[in-house]
Amino acid sequence: MTALEELPLRAELRGKAPYGAPQLDVPVRLNTNENPYPPSAALVADLAASVSAAASSLNRYPDREALALRGDLAAYLSRSGGVQLSAEQVWAANGSNEVLQQILQAFGGPGRTALGFEPTYSMHSLIAEGTSTSYVVARREVESGFRIDPAAAVEAVAEHAPDVVFLCSPNNPTGTALDPDVVEEVYAATAGMVVVDEAYAEFSHAPSLLRLLPGRPRLIVTRTMSKAFAFAGGRLGYLAADPAVVDALRLVRLPYHLSVVSQEAARAALRHADDTLASVDLVKAQRDRIVTELRARGYDVVDSDANFVLFGRFAEQARVWRALLERGVLVREVGLSGWLRVTAGTEDETSAFLDALDAARDEAG
Ligand code: PMP
User: Fold this and answer.
1) Taking a C-beta distance cutoff of 8 angstroms, is the pair 160, 135 a contact?
2) Which Gene Ontology molecular function entries are recorded, alphabetically (predicted)?
């Protein structure tokens, strides 16, 4: 057996732990913000037929530019995002994590800095680390509902002069939507790239920030099919930006990074978008139910525009996490002392979560 320390690993990776939400086989999994509704039978049949048809040409590389898929994604954003977009303004990869990595490969890297507003999505800092990009932090405070104040954001930009600014709306793990002023003011204050991570946009009460793209060539809005599209297993993330940004990402992407199977499967999923996205309203109703029910029980609950809710505060959130797990309910410890995050599931899953939480509280006395 070789220990990791024995390998000539890069110094900055020594002693680090990989990203890892526990993947446990329990009845109620509410820890990774997936859509609880499986794909429809019609989608499964369409996807199987499309992949089957494509299988006869798997000896050939896929379309390196994924143009048909990018066209379909542009059409979806154009009809839902309040701005007209074409395939040249859209880029896709294996999950939005890969999109974010490509952004830092192109615009971050050694000697460059990315700024994030924490608590936020933990992969932003991990991808910075993996691409040797310095990562600096400005804080979101619980007292202000984890919102970002435009003036404070501009100050953080002035202080750190970042090459890339990460903004996340709705923000994971707090569920907080971003005030458009923050994007406008940060964009005006920086010479770097501004990345708005909209992984959870479809669940928000607020409109998408895609409408801020025209006239802002350094602005990037990233999206994913993992959440609202119920396609986490399909691994398809994408972005909208100026075509020049897409040209930049082409310099760092691996050739043929999106397989024929991925492209065909995603296109099939997009053909059934209206059907799949109908589940978003069901999830939002459970999200709002969780907020109401937890507040009625006296918990601190952060307003949520996403498909999850941050709640607390606990003297020892790890104990509550374990008590829920013992009752078959998996939620997320997000590294925020006193808080836990729960994903909105089906009505039954939400009931199971609330019941388990009540039982855990009764037991703790
Ligand atoms: N951005 C945010 C804010 C997320 O929460 C996630 C998934 N947890 C992602 C990006 C990445 O999603 P994926 O790689 O599945 O597209």
Assistant:
1) no
2) histidinol-phosphate transaminase activity
The string of pLDDT tens digits covering residues 175-194 is: 999 999 999 999 999 999 99
Contact 309, 302 (CB under 8 A): yes
End-to-end distance of the chain based on CA atoms, in angstroms? 47
Got the DSSP string for 300-348? EE---SSSEEEEE--S-HHHHHHHHHHTTEE-B--S-TT-EEEE---HH
Query: Nearest residue CA, atom 1 of ligand 1?
Result: 199
The CATH class, in words, for 20-40+275-364 is alpha beta
Domain ranges (residues) in the chain: 20-40+275-364, 46-270
Torsions phi, psi for 230 (to 5 deg): 55, 45
Fold of 46-270: Aspartate Aminotransferase; domain 2 (3.40.640)
Q: What is the ipTM of this complex?
A: 0.99
Question: Would you say 99 and 93 are in contact if contact means Cβ atoms under 8 Å apart?
Answer: yes
Q: Which residues line ligand 1 (CB under 6 A)?
A: 33, 95-97, 121, 168, 172, 197, 199, 224, 226, 232, 237
Per residue in 267-291, pLDDT (tens digit) is 999 999 999 999 999 999 999 999 9
